[in-house]
Design brief:
The protein is an alpha+beta fold. Helices cover 30% and strands 44% of the residues. It folds into 2 domains: 21-46 and 65-185 and 314-405, Lipocalin (Beta Barrel), CATH 2.40.128.90; 186-237 and 247-311, no CATH class. It has helices at residues 21-38, 40-46, 52-57, 96-99, 188-207, 218-226, 250-278, 282-311; strands spanning 66-85, 88-94, 103-115, 118-134, 139-162, 165-186, 314-333, 338-347, 355-366, 371-386, 389-405. Helix 5 (188-207) packs antiparallel against helix 6 and helix 7 runs antiparallel to helix 8. It is rod-shaped and about 110 Å long.
Length: 406
């Protein structure tokens, strides 16, 4: 189940599985097998018989109490992969050191409740990234914003439990909401200068024996040289912000718009240039030159106005989807205070993502009876391709978790 809103004009990309997806399945299988082998000893230890004296001292069985867990995980991930919008993709490779200065707000929480073998768990991760990027071309700056929610809710069933640890089977659903926005701020002085240079180049080409047919196919080359080459920042990667090419179609729209304007005025400019070249008297030549100046100024103003209006915009896209998953989690006690804990799940199955998997492993310390701390590593992979968005991304990094049980 997935519902998304895409900005007007976005084209639906062709869905195609990336060749590295089998590796993602392989990594997940290896992780889940490792978790199983690590906790296999728990099963054997759970089946060990207690000494006779402990058997005799065992109290009568009582109803299992409710157990609650509340944690505040500090996940510090980088984001690596490919983000695409409307069939235009952009590679992303941003580590946490680059992301950290761009964080506007971030929060995360996880909670669980257990009674006997049955348990319920949930978590929420939210981050808002943003900032502005200065430019030297036809844009004075670009404002960026990326908001992402990852919410997880599931049920657990304890399949193995002993004095050295436990293993739970998991089933649940993960919700992902991704909002991306790019706001462009045009540099009107630079746009005016570029438009004047373009019109001067058009006039010069007309003088170079092109007056009989206008500038024809050479117009595209002039537009690219004088205008589009100075808009390369629209296709650049933005430092510290993992965002897709939200405005990726702007360059095509600008080129087409300029060509339409020039096509309308090109015949008049050609006629004026011809008149100036064929003038027999100084007065006729001066009148033709005045006409040329007027048409050049009109053309330059029209081009500058169109470019300014196209660049003065904010493009945004929101996508959200739900991914069912299954998995395992387990704990292996190393002693009174320290333990190993791991969790892995796999899902998507084409319901939301084509494939999603997550793996987490950590070394924990039971600081007091009710307070614990964990330091580990978490990796989340998503391969989502729908509603104009390609999100083929690894989100991975160190996680430090503090929590309480009661």
């Amino acid at each position: 189940m997935n519902t998304n809103r895409a900005p007007e004009g976005f084209r639906k990309p062709t869905l195609k599985m990336e060749p590295h997806l089998p590796r993602a399945w392989g990594v997940t299988a290896v992780w889940m097998l490792s978790l199983f082998l690590l906790l296999r000893g728990v099963s054997a230890q759970a089946g060990e018989e207690l000494p006779p004296d402990l058997k005799q001292a065992s109290p009568p069985s009582l109803e299992e109490p409710w157990k609650f867990t509340l944690g505040i995980p500090g996940w510090m991930p980088g984001i690596y992969g490919t983000i695409g919008i409307n069939g235009i993709t952009s590679p992303v490779s941003v580590d946490f050191g680059q992301i950290f200065p761009r964080i506007n707000f971030a929060t995360s929480v996880e909670a669980g409740v257990q009674k006997g073998k049955l348990g319920f768990l949930g978590s929420l991760f939210y981050t808002s990234l943003g900032g502005d990027v200065g430019r030297d071309g036809l844009l004075s700056k670009i404002d960026l914003r990326v908001d992402e929610y990852i919410a997880d809710i599931g049920v657990s069933y304890r399949v193995i439990e002993g004095r050295h640890g436990w293993v739970d089977a998991l089933a649940g659903c993960r919700y992902t909401n991704l909002y991306q926005r790019v706001t462009l701020h045009p540099d009107y002085d630079a746009i005016g200068n570029a438009s004047t240079q373009l019109v001067d180049a058009i006039s010069q080409r007309i003088l170079q024996e092109l007056s009989d047919r206008g500038i024809g196919d050479q117009l595209k080359g002039l537009i690219a040289q004088k205008i589009l080459d100075r808009l390369g920042e629209l296709d650049e990667k933005y430092p510290g912000v993992p965002i897709g090419p939200v405005g990726g179609g702007d360059i095509d729209r600008i080129r087409d718009s300029i060509q339409q304007i020039v096509d309308k005025l090109d015949p008049a400019l050609v006629t004026a240039v011809q008149a100036a070249a064929q003038a027999k008297t100084a007065a006729l030549k001066a009148a033709a030159q005045q006409r040329i100046a007027y048409l050049k100024n009109k053309l330059a103003n029209a081009i500058a106005s169109r470019i300014g209006s196209l660049l003065n915009q904010s493009a945004a896209k929101t996508n959200y989807w739900f991914d069912p998953y299954v998995g395992l989690r387990g704990r292996l006690n190393l002693g009174k205070a320290f333990y190993l804990i791991g969790k892995s799940d796999i899902g998507g199955f084409g319901v939301g993502s084509q494939l999603t998997w997550q793996a987490y492993g950590a070394l924990g310390c039971q600081i007091t009876r009710n307070i614990y701390a964990e330091t580990g590593y978490r990796c989340l992979f998503d391969n989502y391709r729908d509603h104009g968005l390609t999100y083929d991304v690894f989100t991975r990094g160190i996680e430090v978790n503090m929590g309480v049980t009661f």
